[in-house]
Amino acid sequence: YKRMANVIKLRKGLDIHLQGKATETKIQLKSKGQYALVPDDFEGVTPKVVVREGDKVKAGDALFVNKQYPEVKFASPVSGIVREVLRGERRKVLCIRVDADAKQEYVDFGKKDVGSLTGEQVINAMLEAGIFGYINQLPYAVSTNPAVLPKAIFVSALRDKPLAADFQYEAKGQEQDFVTGVHALSKIAKTYLGLGIQPEFQTAIRQLGIDNYAELNIFDGPCPAGNVGVQVNNIDPVNKGEVVWTIGDPTVVLFIGRLLNTGKVDLRRTVALCGSEIANPAYVDMLVGEELTTAT
Questions:
Q1: What does the alpha-carbon distance between residue 89 and residue 54 come to, in Å, rounded to a whole number?
Q2: pTM of the entire structure?
Q3: pLDDT of residue 141
Q4: Could you give the CA distance from residue 265 to residue 263 in angstroms, rounded to a whole number?
Q5: Which of 67, 72, 214, 248 has minimal Cβ neighbours within 10 Å of its Cβ?
Q6: 78 near 35, Cβ under 8 Å?
Q7: 4: burial class by Cβ within 10 Å (0-12, 13-18, 19+)?
């Protein structure tokens, strides 16, 4: 018997309907084979670069670490040669570019059985593979300190910003990785999963036993119901002296699940290529940091 998920009705907010929403079809883009990891994409991180131009890296090798918590590494999405470390004013690291190999090589972190892991082992697995930095921390938009355990972890699988990619579509066929990722997070702290009205996705993950690992909350209301901070506020607000971890982009849960299920860092994501300027708005499978070129 599965208990009903909590439904939280929100009245404040506004859905903005813009032209050019992506249709549920995928198109192939021609890849230039150029990738870049941008430290500014990660909240509150001061980067320390750990590779040099000309170095050979595998997918999963660290390109930079967080100066404040050097155990938090950031993994290269591809194997290849480090082409440049691009710096701006006052030597600020803007990005680290990698030219991808034709045949990809991955660091093997080893498959893991989530059921037998402790919270500490889950954190260590994410740190070792350079994907822990995708988890954010509240309060303050500071980089997450892996040594301070949160009172809870909040994941939002509802994207409701204008023209946002539909996660239910992205996750199709990857539900097991998603459940593995949530199971892993639940080993660290109580985990809350915020969903929209996504019947197919909800049914699929509940059949895989997600109720055993997370408390499900369905948010019924206009944007910004999908905002993870709004969800925290409605479920279990942060009091003085408390820390919670948040994942506002549910693709990150797939990264965690894939790492544990395959032993590889696999930073594939499905992006909505959309907007009023685009003739045929659709979805594209890409890697984090991939340079976009015109459709072929």
A1: 23
A2: 0.95
A3: 64
A4: 7
A5: 67
A6: yes
A7: exposed
